Amino acid sequence: MASRHQRPLGRRKFLAALGGAAAAAPAVTALAPHALAGTAPESGASVAQTLPLTIVNNSGAFGNASVHVYIVGNQDGRQVRVTPDGTLAPIALSDNGADGFTDYAIPLAGSGGTRLSLPRMSGRIYVALGQKLKFRAVTDGSGNAALQYPAGWVSSDPNYPVLHDCAEFTYNSAGMFCNTTMVDMFSVPLSIRLTGARDQTTGTVRGGGRAAAFAALRQVEEFSRLVVGDTRVIAPGHGLDAGLFAKDYFAPYIDEVWSAYAGRDLTVTTNAGTFTGRVRGGRLTFDGPAPVGFDKPSTRDVLFCDGALAAPNDGTTGPVAAVLGAGFNRSALLATAAQPVTDAASFYRTGITNHYAKAMHAATEDGRAYGFAFDDVADFASYIQDTAPTGIRLTLSPF
Question: Are residues 54 and 29 in the same domain?
Answer without folding.
Answer: yes
